[in-house]
Every structure is written in C-alpha cells, then in structure tokens.
Design brief:
Elements lengths: L2 E7 L5 E7 L3 H10 L3 E7 L4 H9 L3 H6 L3 H16 L4 H8 L6 H15 L4 H5 L8 H13 L2 H57 L6 H35 L2 H13 L3 H22 L4 H8 L6 H15 L4 H6 L6 H13 L2 H57 L1
Antiparallel strand pairs: 1-2, 1-3
Helix pairs in contact: 4-5, 4-9, 5-6, 8-9, 9-10, 9-12, 9-17, 10-11, 10-17, 11-12, 12-13, 12-17, 13-14, 16-17
Length: about 400
C-alpha cells in the first residue's frame, strides 16, 4: 500500500503534516477528510522496501539524525503487546499505532511493516527488512512467538526486556552526566586560563629581565604554546580521535580496544558485568520463547558488546554442540564471573536454566547500577583534586617571582 506525506489544515485552521497510507492519493484525501482535516498537499513517498532497507543499513548524515531510537521501539512494542492481547488482529493493531507515532522515520517503517504483512509475509519476515531498527533478538523472539501461537506473550516479554534495557541505559547516562559535564567545564576553564589570562600576567615578569623560578618558566612556555598554537592542539586532538576511531573499525583494532577496556581497572569489571547481564537476559528470554540453545547462543554472541566476550560465547556454543555443559564452557574463558557460572550450572542441573539466567541478569544489572554510582562518586573528588593541583601550580608559578621581588626590595 502506498505511503503519502501530507500537509493539511485542521478544523481550527492550524497547519499539520504527517504520513498516511492509503490505496491512492484520492483515498488518502478522503481518509484525511474523515479525520476532520482538509488536505493542502499530498505527495507519495516513492521508496521501495529495498531502498528502505538500504537506507537503514548505510550510515549517512540523514540516518544519523533520523534513525529509529530504541526508546521508540520499546514504546511501540508495549502498545502492540497491549493491543494484540486485547484481541486486535495484528494488521489492525499496527495500523492503530501509525497515528500515535511521532517520528516520521518510524511511521514509514511501521507502514511498510503493515504492507509486508498484508502482502503475505510473516511479522518476523517483515521485521527482518529493517535490521537497524529491530535487533536479531527482537526478530527471533517474534518468530518463535508466531510459530508457537503465543505472539501476545512474546511481545509482552519483549516490551519488558526493551524497557529494562532503556531504564538501565538511562540510569547509567544520568549517573555519568555530572562528571562528564564537570570535566568539559574544567578543561575549558584551564584552556581559557592558559591561553588568555596567564599570558597577560606572566608578561610582567618577562619584561623585568630577571631570573625566574623553574615553575614560572614552565608556566610561561605552556601558556605561550596554548596562546600561539591552540588551533594546532585542537586539530591534533581531532586527528588522533579520528585515527583511533578508524583503527577501531578494523578487526585488529577492535580486538585491541576491547582487550584494553577489559583490563582497565574498575571500567573492565563494569563492562564485564554489563555484558553478563545482557547475555543472561537475552539468552533466558530466547530459551523461554522456544528458541533452542545453540541458535540462541548464535544470536547472543552478536550483542555482547565486546569481541573477547563474543569469542568466548562462540567457543561455548561449539562446546555445547559437542555435548559439553554451558557453565563449564563459559568458565574456560576466564572472563565470566564465578557467581554467574555457578548459577548457570545450578540452572542446568535443575532443568530450569531459563529462570536462572533471568535471575543472573537481575543480579548483575543491580551490580552495574551500584558500580556506576560508586564510580561516579569516586570521579568527583578525583576531578576536584586534579583541578586543585593544576590551579595550585598556576598560582604558585605566579606568586614565586612576586615573593622574590619582595625579598630584593627588603
């Protein structure tokens, strides 16, 4: 079914715009009139599913700002689960979501999903056309729900999973927002001091033609460097960032970065806990919805967020395929915490691996949140200490020549 972009006037004469799907432009105009709007212009969006798919897979400026956000997917999943659970047919439920969606990009995706289902594709097949919007976990759980006839239950669980993931991300970002903001402000203040304020003060000492203390000489040289070549420093910093980003996109670079991150004190432990929580919740949800262990491990290895951990999961999948237990194969990697391995082993022995994995996810998500709070509480005094040392050095470097001048006068 074609999708149209429209501009219309409501009953109060206010201009509105959006996207609507209809059999033709006349049908779209009639549909808008039934909704109480008066169409001004209606333009068909000439995009095929293949083009849509390509646009979601290819990074450019437009997709960077118009991509589908995980929060939008989470909200859509919860609404869809509620509608399907209330007895709505899938197509009617998806059609109901279109006018409630604010993002124009996501409206196009939902409209295309509806068209694909009407044309005879399954819901999972339609979702697979948009891998940038819907994760492999999402697609495979929907496929399992359609196969088992429990789509409403699967959608409800997917909504819980996506909402918990968004909640955890929000808490981490909120906890790190203040230290990051203070770091940026501190760097800017130091730059202004060294590039503009300090040179005007130290110029008095250089004009006196007397021997200066070593800290003062060092401060003068640093401030002259910032004053004359600040743009070179910023350019060099940007080039280093771009180079590191490009290097990280290579196989060797990504492996090296992930290895260094895991070895970093405190940060490495936090990343391991976060990966274990993501691994456990995803694997447990897949197993609960009828996905067998080996295919589930193949899905989970792609969302670990770290190449070393993904390699361990991949090796574990091979060992499980040979008849080895999951807990034993994970323990050989020497990265998964002992608590997680033991709980998985208990789940295997009791035959309730799915529920135990969910418990592991709950435990480590709570530990991640506690670790982030501890890390941020430690970062604040460290930043204050660093700023104090730097400012103290600047004050000392300025005051030392003044003290020497006073002694000469006396």
């Amino acid at each position: 079914m074609p999708v149209y972009e429209f501009t219309a006037l409501d009953e109060k004469g206010k201009s509105t715009s959006g996207i609507i799907n209809a059999e033709g432009s006349l049908a779209a105009r009639q549909k808008l009139q039934k909704q109480g709007s008066y169409p001004v212009s209606i333009t068909e969006i000439d995009d095929t599913q293949d083009k849509d798919k390509k646009s979601f897979q290819t990074f450019n400026v437009s997709t960077a700002f118009n991509r589908v956000k995980p929060a939008e997917v989470a909200m859509m999943t919860r609404q869809l689960a509620t509608l399907v659970g209330a007895g709505f047919p899938l197509v009617a439920a998806i059609d109901t979501l279109i006018p409630q969606t604010k993002s124009q990009t996501f409206i196009r995706v939902i409209a295309r999903l509806k068209d694909s289902i009407v044309e005879g594709q399954s819901f999972a097949q339609a979702l697979s056309l948009y891998p940038a919007a819907f994760s492999p976990l999402y697609i495979n759980m929907v496929r399992a729900g359609e196969t088992s006839g429990t789509l409403e239950i699967v959608l409800d669980r997917l909504a819980d999973i996506t909402e918990k993931q968004q909640t955890l991300k929000t808490r981490i970002r909120t906890a790190l927002a203040y230290p990051i903001l203070m770091s940026i402000v501190g760097v800017l203040v130091l730059f202004l001091l060294l590039a503009f304020i300090v040179p005007s003060i130290t110029s008095i000492f250089t004009d006196m033609n007397q021997a200066l203390p070593l800290p003062t000489i060092l401060l003068i040289n640093i401030s002259e460097l910032f004053k004359s070549y600040w743009w070179v420093l910023f350019l060099l910093f940007a080039l280093i960032l771009l180079g590191l980003k490009k290097f990280r996109r290579t196989v060797k670079g990504a492996y090296l970065f992930d290895k260094v991150l895991l070895k970093t004190p405190m940060m490495g432990n936090l990343l391991i806990k976060l990966a274990v929580a993501r691994f456990s919740r995803t694997l447990g949800s897949l197993l609960e919805n009828g996905v067998s262990l080996l295919p589930a491990l193949e899905i989970v290895k792609n969302i670990a967020g770290n190449i070393l951990i993904s390699d361990i999961i991949e090796e574990s999948a091979k060992e499980v395929g040979k008849g080895q237990g999951l807990s034993v194969s994970l323990a050989r990697g020497n990265i998964f915490p002992q608590l997680a391995v033991q709980m998985i082993q208990v789940g295997e022995q009791s035959g309730d691996l799915e529920a135990m994995l969910i418990k592991v996810a709950d435990i480590f998500e709570n530990e991640v949140e506690s670790s982030v709070m501890s890390l941020t509480s430690l970062l604040e005094p460290i930043m204050i200490l660093v700023m104090g040392v730097v400012v103290g050095f600047i004050v000392l470097s300025i005051c030392l020549p003044i003290f020497e001048m006073n002694q000469l006068v006396m």
